[in-house]
Specification:
about 35% strand; 5-stranded mixed beta sheet; Trna Endonuclease, Chain: A, domain 1; alpha+beta; 5 strands
Amino acid sequence: MHNQTFGNKGEELAKTFLLQKGYELLEQNWRHKKSEVDLICRKEGIIIFVEVKTRSTDRFGYPEEAVGAKKEEKLAQAAAEYIEQTNHQGEIRFDIISIILGKETEVHHIEDAFFPGL
């Protein structure tokens, strides 16, 4: 499966997963300069910036391990811009949804995955 198609399938699974958990989808693939936030959701007044990582196997590590300091920094910059544009005054959070599309699909939701200094 092509990487982009594979990633899109993971994002759709993540979106469905969050909607079923009562999250409200605000944005999908929201861009700011060279950064992109896969999903921006709201739950209980908290804006949640979600990075989705999808792999076919965990043979080379878990998908969430691909979110390093540089990616966290880009997400934080995009989040700061989104907060400014929407004038959000409340709490925010950064989550990662790790998906393995192997023989069986595994979805792992990591809340408060990292805490950038905004």
